[in-house]
Write a structure and sequence with these properties.
It is a single chain. This protein has 252 residues and is α/β, with parallel strands linked by helices. Helix 1 packs across helix 10, helix 5 packs across helix 6 and helix 6 crosses helix 7. An 8-stranded mixed beta sheet has the order 3-4-2-5-1-6-7-8, with helices on both faces. The N and C termini lie close together (8 Å). It has one domain: 3-Layer(aba) Sandwich (Rossmann fold), CATH 3.40.50. It binds adenosine-5'-triphosphate and magnesium ion. Magnesium ion binds next to helix 1.
Amino acid sequence: MILGICSNKGGVGKTTVSTLLAAYTAKHTEKKILLVDADHNRGSSSVFFSNKEPADSIFDAFQCYAEDPYDFLSVSGAMKRAVVKAEGYENLFVLQSSRKLAQITALGLEAEALKDMIGIAHFDRYSLVIIDSGTVPVIVSMCVTACDRLLIPMMMSQQCIGPTRNTINLARRKHTRVLGLLPMAAGRSRWDRAILENWEEIIRDTSDLGWDLGLMEGISQSRSVVKADPVSGTIPPIALPTLEKIYEALGL
Ligand SMILES: Nc1ncnc2c1ncn2[C@@H]1O[C@H](COP(=O)(O)OP(=O)(O)OP(=O)(O)O)[C@@H](O)[C@H]1O
Ligand SMILES: [Mg+2]
């Protein structure tokens, strides 16, 4: 199961959900979990490790693939070298990112590249692969293409509506099933309610996308989420119902 946590909008909670879900899942099952950090800002990587540039990263794998997508040994080797076990876990692994990923466009890769690379590296040995996409359009497109299910975090601002619609449209073009739309840091204001009603309508109009969990309850505004430390395995109680629902829907 490959779950893409993607949005064309920055700062909507992709890394927050990716890292909390990875920690939650790893604690609830003995199955192997891989968190793929595909963001050049190293959001998910720096939650589990320091923010130092790693010796091996997903960028090296992309570079290998760009040089020769049929050199399976090199691509697979580069992918595996970038995977590091998360401290404190026996079954949680992180495919580290690099700031070099900001230059990905220069590699001229197709949208299918990441899907192909995950296949070449035999990452189906992991029961769950979670991808934190970042916001670079080429990579978001690769993640939406690579995943079996898509989870789209969003926040309540006006600026979030357009990019979130773009992500939904991308899922439609790529025939990717959407697990749910996940409101992050929502409050109880009338504005927030109105925005959510609007999204409910959009979900009804795009029922071909599956929407297993539809418009989710979400993880409401809380400082405990900002201060959460997935490395320690302590999950803020406010995030638990959401994580539980996602975990159940994935049917691992
Ligand atoms: N439920 C919440 N309550 C309060 N703050 C939250 C909540 N969810 C996320 N945030 C905060 O919102 C900010 C953006 O979240 P996050 O970094 O996960 O987004 P992102 O989509 O990964 O951003 P980027 O596009 O920069 O990678 C962070 O400071 C995070 O702590
Ligand atoms: Mg992030």
